Amino acid sequence: MDFKLIADYHTHTKYSDGKGSIEDSVKRAVELGLKMIGISDHGFNHVKSGIKRSQVQEMREEVERLKKVYPQIEIKLGIEANLVNLDGEIDLTEEDIKNFDYIIFGIHYFTFGKGVKGSRRFNLKNAISKSKKYIEKVTDSYIKAIEKYPVSVVVHPNYVVPVNVKRLAEAAAKKDVYIELNGKRTDFSEQQVKELLDSNVKLIIGSDAHSPERIAECENPKQFIFKNNIPLSRIVNIKVEN
Ligand SMILES: [Zn+2]
Ligand SMILES: [Zn+2]
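^ thats the input. predicted complex w/ zinc ion below
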């Protein structure tokens, strides 16, 4: 048994740290026969690669133009927002949220948060602290964000800081938020896989492609899924092939 992606909502373009244009990504997705392609460049507070608020309008216009050129595929403009502090805040205002079709979010190295000191402390703690107490605090922060914002996906949990997967999965399931099996870093222990499956959370594969050629690439999560006997029915964006 095998499967392939039918929708890839986690892709980057040169607006953040990806290589191709939005159209390059759409073309590739059409070639692959995807039903949906989502553009999700890094959020504003990502120090190195965040898009600028002034670029959003241009991105939106491009997406709307491409919808007419490629009617065979659904094209959405999303954003990969950053969790920026332990209060569960992400780098989107209410105004920003209206400009995107969907939001995915996670923690990244080096993000701007509240003030210089606050940002420095958060980034530093994330990089060095692996204490049980800190893991629970970060998990609380993810959960607060899930409850506060209209987010669709938690991307790459356990990246940068480990999380309490059981609590995160239960909170995500309650709000119908998906947990990502990331194309580059699918990182869950055996126990955590059990916790994911014991909750009602739905899983979604995101390629996290940073170039058009890697769109819908899912070899890593695929191996992980088969190795851990994860039922394919738990994954929302694949087509099973015999
Ligand atoms: Zn990311
Ligand atoms: Zn990404």
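The chain has a mean pLDDT of 96.
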